[in-house]
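It is worth pausing here to work through a concrete case rather than discussing structure prediction in the abstract. The textbook approach is simple: state the sequence, then state the predicted structure, then interpret. We follow exactly that order.
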Amino acid sequence: MVSFLLSLVALVLGYLFYGKFVARVFGPDDRPTPAVTKADGVDFIVLPSWKIFMIQFLNIAGTGPIFGAIMGAWYGPVAYLWIVFGCIFAGAMHDYMSGMLSMRHGGAGLPELVGRYLGNTTRKVMLVFSVLLLMMVGVVFVYSPAIILESMCGSKMFWIIVIFIYYIIATLLPIDKIIGKVYPLFAISLLFMAAALMIGLFIKMPAIPELWDQLGSSHLDAYPAWLGTDSFMTKNPLFPCLFITIACGAISGFHATQSPLMARCIKSEKMGRPIFYGSMITEGIVALIWATVSMYFFYYGGWREVVSSEVVQQFIAQSADGQTLIQYYDAPTVVKLVCSSWLGVAGGVLALLGVVAAPITSGDTAFRSARLIIAEALGMEQRTMHRRLFICIPMFVIAILLLVWQMGNPDGFNVIWQYFGWANQTLSVFTLWTLTVYLVQKQKPFFVTLLPALFMTVVCSTFLLVSKQALGLQSVVAYTGSVIILVLALVWFFAWYTKYQRNH
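Step two, the predicted structure:
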């Protein structure tokens, strides 16, 4: 638990000090914001700062900082390092800068910002890329909360239909009609869940592995085959797969599509740091908590404490030739078991509602972002309902077709999720390079975005080279290729930088 406590303190200090430095680099001022200058009562509307924080937090906190952290913790305590350093120096900075840049450009969406600084060709690519990503977010965030809700009451199909109807309504109506009213309640549920689990961890103080320990020091060292992490890491090497698995909670390109939504609702630029940087740090804390819960569950042997003795014996009986722990207990199952066991019936239901609210609230704003990005590309105003329907009807038809395909394919969800994970981080690469060009042009310290841009470029390219879902090259070839890509990226940037400095 020492590693967890140090990581928690590091995130708070990161907000207080590095967050302030990043804000100073950007330089917020008192100019009128798009919420004031372009007010339309639908998407551009001034909201209270506390409410914007709640909405932004829920927009970005899908299942990523929960499910992703649970699976990322299979790599051991090293997950803490990625969550802490990724969140402070990459993710929170990425969210803040993209939100503020949108505010400076009239609430522009990500494709427009990319086009302005990386060229029109890149803008067209990003337009298609970001809309497809947002559609995949909406689809996967219909399915995952339905799985959890099914365990409480009703059928999975029933909840899929209910959630999808909600998405349609929330996408069409003004942002203050549903999103502005229900999100604070959802946020309270999610924050309650995180706080309750953290208190539970402090009460139990499990002897989970520390950063300086070997994973074999866990309670499962007598039966290492039970865990299954060795085979998992063989198929999914720590680099780059850890950095794809834990996206939300460290850095996520999806957030750059969500920050413009709130950039259209902020009255003062000076509220950008607590809203954008602060919400990402909060998400990092949620990811830390669930990573720790996961290590308690798998490495400490906590699974024995949250299931009946009959279930323990059932697992042991099939362990020789059957599933390992990480196969037997997937991420949604870990969430349900821990919340119900630690928090009782009432607390467990409230916590699960928080977990359910996270993907649902990310899904509806994903569709909303897709609508606004398409409208911006077409130059179509969104004050009137029929113009919103003109965009939304074909968009939801495509989403329904994706959902039907996913449900009819035994491995459909996993396929979409894998592509979503890579696309998500690739989107962050485009955003970081856009921010780097902006800072260069404004003669500001650009290393704050350049270093994360280079790192994530290597992560995403390496994943393409080494992953079995992509090229699946041999390790030596894949990692050699990633080094070459890093060198090419550096050469390209400094060639452009030298030319830009010469011409300006």
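Step three, interpretation. The domain at 2-407 is CATH 1.20.1740 (Amino acid/polyamine transporter I). Residues 38 and 181 are 22 Å apart (CA to CA).
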